[in-house]
Amino acid sequence: MRRVPWHIAFAAGAAVALASAAAIATAQSSPPDQTAAAHATYVGMQACQDCHEDQFKSWEHNPHHGSQIDSNPTGKKEVECESCHGPGSLHVEAGGDKDNPGFHTIRNLKTMKADASSEVCATCHRTAEQFHWKSSTHARNRVACVDCHAVHSPKDPGGQLLLQATGTSELCLRCHTDKRSQVAHVSHMPVPEGGITCADCHNPHGSPGPHMIRGASNNELCESCHMDKRGPFLWEHPPVREDCLNCHEPHGSNNDKMLVTKRPFLCQRCHIATRHPSTLYDLPDLTASNRTRIVDRGCVNCHTQIHGSNHPSGETLLR
Amino acid sequence: MKRLRQIQWALPAMIVLSIAAACPVFAADGEVTIGSQWYNQTTREPKWFDEYRDITNGPMIESFVILDKIDGGRYSLTGTNVLKHDQSEALMYRRPRFTVGVSYKEIPHNLSWNTKTPYARIGPGVYVLPDAVQRRIQSDSASTPARTADLQSLLAGARTEPMGFRTDVTRALLKGRIGNGLQLDIRGSRRMRQGDKTYSITLGGFSNVVEIPEDINQQIVTGEAKLSYVKRRCVIEVSGGLEGFINEVDALIVDNPRIASDSTIGSSRGRLDLYPDNRTVRGALRAGLELPHHSVFNAYAGISETKQDDRFLPYTINSALPVFALPSPDAHAKAVTVTQDYRLHSSPSRFLNTTLRFRRSDYENKTAFHTFPAEILYDQSVVVGDIENERFEYARSTSGVDLDLTPVSRLVLGGTAEYIWRTRSIREVTKDKELAFEGHVNYHPSISGLVLEGRYRHGDRRLNHTPIEELADEREQPNLRRFDVGDRNQDWGRARLGFQPNGRSDISAYYEYIRNKYEDQRLDGIGAIASPTDTIGQLGLLDETRRNVGANVSYELTKQITLRGGVGYSKLYTNQRSRTSPATMTQVADSTWQARIVDRFVFGNAAVEWRPKADRLSFGATWELERTPTSYDLSSIGLRPRAQDLPSTEYRRMGAGVEGWYQLEKGTTSLGLRWNWEEFHVQDFQASVIPLLYPAVNPTILFMADNFRDYRAHILSVMLRRTF
Questions:
Q1: A164 and B82 in contact (C-beta within 8 Å)?
Q2: Are B715 and B38 a contacting pair, CB within 8 Å?
């Protein structure tokens, strides 16, 4: 019997799963009880000021303040409290009485489920940086916008990014604690020093690339700053062209240039044919003559153009 | 000079302070922190201490923030380390429907303050030695004490040439809502990189290598515009951009210390081609469509074309060698990258989330083919014969489905199935495919604040064939399997615990395990396929295992005291096997050797914050330790003498700091004092004991001694913070 190519089966299975999910949803899902909220009306932001004085103070320099949007649910152009928190008439009428059902008709993004609260932000933030949010790893893991952003009390200097921490990297490292130790390796990118941040390489809102990187591939990302390595070269070094991460560990390593291991062992993972690439370099070689391959940059002492060469005599990456 | 430096500091400091002083008058809000610092370092050494920082004695503007309204809009002006070489400033101006911003940042990368070179720079990328020295060394016989003595004498006069470069990044953006549903986002950047770093060049095989400064004077310019349109359930975005890389130094030209005049046995100079200019045009289209049942479909298609047509250098700079014609004035190099990404995400109910996705990235190399009549290695050895360049290109496709179920409110069960297939040209493996499955569980038990997370992934990558013939064509060992294109079994697991029992404490811990086993099962137990005498089996990287474990704690002891701490440990074990061969490749087991390298990393930190009078007085103290021992266990079969392990390496850094702030005037003025201490220890046969001339007998390399060094450092800072 001729076997069906497994990937076709895989795609078909996935399609069936998705269709089933949709069918289940039709049968099971029911809208949340919005009865009370449905009767609330928009009352304007002045009604909020009496009770929420702190939020009003910080609102003055908030990037949302004064901005005009096209899809404002309040019907006004400018962003106000109710643009995010929903119509507030019943909440105002409750006068702070938490036993009054009307009190809870206001949206509190911190207590809402992650996807529901993020949906509120996505009313306006649907393009550019946030385009891929819904299918991002963060969204899948139920990270909400308000887990990282503090709209009313940002901690970043000037509060223009509305962050929950004093800096972007500091914010990311709260959850990605393993990376906190990785960027502390002796060979590291200038993340702890603030030269770059996690968000320079990753888009925490999602991206079409792997691992939410700001590039379609690892190389495209790395080459956006290290454009000298982009080539294309006359003589390419294929594993370099295919993936920088074959040799480099971008979050930090114990080795020079954030290499995954020391040279010459790194090079000898792939080159072992004859003569010097195949030689074992051990302790006696540290003092022996003519052993240029184990000290300093190892093989790259001579094969300087390891990322590729454009020299007519550069086939062996010496020129 | 000192006075000039003081003026240079005093003037801008006064300007910023005047602005800060005037801000209250104009009703601006903000904060500025100024001060002065003194540092001391036992050995001037940038590695770690100021590798990416500009640490100087004297006054500083540590940070400032100014927020105000102007002409119906709002602006923010922020900055850190103003006028130092690690400064950053940003100005953002927001109007109701658009935002304009500019920012500037300097990122130093100091490599060494101690490097030395006997070379003199006479132009961009051109380094020379005195002719007399070259002639004298040339007249010495090779491998004689006289030559060594002459080289030592040359290096005795070497001058200190600090190595390092700085990247200055300027960015600008304009974004706005230009019409009903239409948004425009325009960004541009300029990245200047200037300075030097150590580079090397061989001027005659292994017997004559010199390390010299590489002049860096590079510029990257980018521009991008995005236009998006949002209409109810639909989002469309079109973007286009230009990028350019300009290298002002095309080549590195270096005098040969051993040869004064060109001859057929060697060149008086060497010439190395530095990175060529390139330019890229890119465009992309994104579309998002909201579908029924809380579903969304996102599509992305992007294309970019990079061209590189830097003029070829001649085959050699050696005037005594024959001249060969170049087949073309430049490489006519061109590469096209096409990326597609499609995702269908659906959350049809609160019990279920699914994503169906497909991504493909193609790197198409359209560089012209050239046939070179000769090749001249290190400006010395002429290899005559038609030498052709090759085009390397590849494609990578990933399709997958993610499914998350929430059977009960506190439990999420998820699964992913992913299929990755890759194709490429030139290399011994042209096709491979990987099937991976991942499962995860996320559990919030009824105990308040507890989160348990587990994740496991297994991937199985297989080649489409056994690449024996292709490796033979490359004149490589037939039993070599290159790790990046070889069979691979990957296991990855991760467990995480988070616990926030109350608003005062936060505990988290994680464990991660990754194992890559690069095993070609067709070689297992049967020895070599190609050679019956080879009983060792697979060569190359055989397996690597990484384990990471760590924990972090934060605890608010009282309203006044908060404690924080963390520990981390990671261990990376790699095992690779290789084989020594003379000029003619041998496949005998007797010449096999193996390297087992263990990289460890120990990390710990602790901090305490104490606010005895919350509105008046606060203290903080920090401590951290990083230690990275690595061992190199080498073994061999039949090699004489048997392999001897390389010495273990270790990098260790410990730092501590205390900081105190006293509020002089409530809500406006505070005085701070900060002291930081740091100790660094290094032991690395490859990076901490490199001499200028190596080895001691019959030296073959002139290094710049770009070494890591032990140091101990203190920084004392006094600061004044004004809030307005």
A1: no
A2: yes
**Residues within 8 A of B (CB atoms), A 46-85 only:** 60-61, 63, 65-71, 77-78
Within chain A, how many helices (H) and strands (E) appear? 16, 0
Angle at alpha carbon of residue A188, lines to B115 and B491, rounded to 5°? 140
CB neighbour class for B52 (10 Å; exposed up to 12, middle 13-18, buried from 19): buried
**Which residues, listed in sequence order, are joined to residue B112 by a DSSP beta bridge?**
B163
B516-543 residue pLDDT tens:
999 887 775 444 455 555 667 889 999 9
Kindly compute the dihedral angle of the four CA atoms of residues B578, B580, B585, B590, in this order, to the nearest 10 degrees.
-90
How many whole angstroms from its chain centre is CA B516? 23
The dihedral through the CA atoms of B688, B689, B690, B692 has a sign that is: positive
- pLDDT tens for residues B417-437? 999 999 999 899 999 999 999
Percent of chain A clearing pLDDT 70 (strictly above) = 87
Indicate the SS3 state at residue B473. helix
Structure tokens at B415: 């699964």
Spatial neighbors of A121 by CB under 8 A, at least 6 apart, are: A84, A109, A130, A145
Q: Tell me if A66 and B74 make a contact (CB, 8 A cut-off).
A: yes
Q: Which pairing describes strands B278-291 and B269-273: parallel, antiparallel, or unpaired?
A: unpaired
Subunit contact B326:A268, Cβ cutoff 8 A: no
**Interchain proximity B348–A21, CB inside 8 Å:** yes
Any A CB within 8 A of B403 CB: yes
Contacts of B81 (CB under 8 A, 6+ apart): B54, B60, B61, B62, B63, B87, B88
Asked if residue B429 lies in contact with residue B474, where contact means CB atoms within 8 angstroms, the answer is no
Helix axes B145-156, B131-139, angle to 10 degrees: 160
Q: Which residue has tokens 């106000």?
A: A80
The dihedral of CA B23, B27, B28, B29: what is its sign? Answer: positive
Whether residue B695 is preceded by a cis peptide bond, meaning omega within 30 degrees of 0, is yes
- Residue B341 CA to residue B539 CA, distance in Å, equals 37
- The distance from CA A122 to its chain's CA centroid, rounded to whole angstroms, is 17
The CA–CA distances, whole Å, from B548 to A260, B499, B512, B579, B598 equal 16, 20, 5, 32, 13
Q: Does B173 touch chain A (CB under 8 A)?
A: no
Query: Rounded CA gap, A245 and A228, in Å?
Result: 17
**Tens-digit pLDDT profile for residues B322-373:** 999 999 999 999 999 999 999 999 988 888 999 999 999 999 999 999 999 9
* Residue B681 · residue B626 · CB < 8 Å: no
Residue reference for tokens 């990484």 = B546
pLDDT score of B593: 92
Contact A25 B427 (CB under 8 A): no
| DSSP element (H, E) containing A198 | helix A198-201
Q: What is the pLDDT of residues A59-108, one digit of tens each?
A: 888 999 988 887 788 888 889 999 999 999 999 998 888 888 889 899 99
pTM: 0.92
Find where tokens 């691979």 sit. Answer: B488
The dihedrals phi and psi of B88, each to the nearest 5 degrees, come to: -150, 140
On whether the CB atoms of residues B245 and B220 are closer than 8 A, the answer is yes
Token pair recorded at residue B24: 């209250």
Residues 6+ apart with CB under 8 A from A166: A155, A156, A157
Q: Which residue is closest to B297 within chain A, CA to CA?
A: A135
pLDDT at A61: 87
The better pLDDT of the pair A177, A168 is held by A168
- Residue pair B709/A319 in contact (Cβ under 8 Å)? The answer is no
pLDDT band at A35 (very low <50, low <70, confident <90, very high): low
- List B354's β-bridge partners, or say none: B346, B403
Which residues in chain A have Cβ-Cβ distances shorter than 8 Å to B297? none
Cβ atoms of B154 and B257 closer than 8 Å: yes
